[in-house]
Design a protein that fits this description.
There is one protein chain. The chain is mainly alpha-helical. The chain has helices at 17-30, 36-48, 61-74, 76-92, 115-126, 128-131, 147-150; strands at residues 136-139, 142-145. A two-stranded antiparallel sheet has the order 1-2. A hairpin with a 2-residue loop joins strand 1 (136-139) and strand 2 (142-145). The protein starts with 16 loop residues before the first helix and ends in an 11-residue tail after the last helix.
């Protein structure tokens, strides 16, 4: 794999989903144009995706959210596959009865968390199509920066008079 497509928590360690998601998202914020290394990282996420019929994943909810943001930014088939897999996993593991109906069990994400955090992260992942705009958008076959990512300056609202 490309050295700039996967990251580890410590030098010399094996690639880690948390570190890779955070690292690739930081790279995309610096330059929102997906490179082959970013796409290779997307393949890494797809190999790490939660199993459809599993009751939990070893990945943290934060890792899944960051990976979702990376893949949403680069769009295309990788995001479509990831989003479908994650959506099926999360909806299958949502609590459907009792006082916590509609939320997620913290054990779903295999990390120490609580119901509120687990549910918040699951909802943010599920809303990725609607909540997050890609940093770059394909328009008429070419990729263009979205208006919100192209400048830190507010738009000029003068009418020219």
């Amino acid at each position: 794999p490309n050295n700039s497509s996967m990251y580890a928590l410590q030098p010399g360690d094996l690639p880690d989903a948390d570190a890779t998601a955070a690292g690739l998202l930081a790279v995309l914020y610096a330059d929102p144009h997906p490179t082959p290394a970013i796409r290779a990282g997307g393949d890494f996420f797809l190999k790490q995706a939660p199993a459809l019929h599993a009751s939990h994943t070893n990945q943290s909810g934060v890792s899944l959210l960051l990976a979702t943001q990376v893949l949403r930014t680069i769009e295309g088939e990788q995001f479509d596959r990831w989003n479908a897999l994650l959506r099926m996993f999360l909806t299958a593991n949502q609590i459907t009865s009792g006082d916590q109906s509609g939320s997620w069990d913290p054990e779903t994400f295999g990390t120490q968390t609580d119901v509120v955090q687990a549910s918040s992260l699951a909802v943010l992942c599920l809303q990725s199509n609607y909540r997050y705009l890609p940093l770059v958008r394909t328009v008429n076959g070419t990729r263009e920066e979205s208006a919100e990512s192209s400048s830190d300056e507010p738009p000029d609202e003068s009418d020219g008079n």
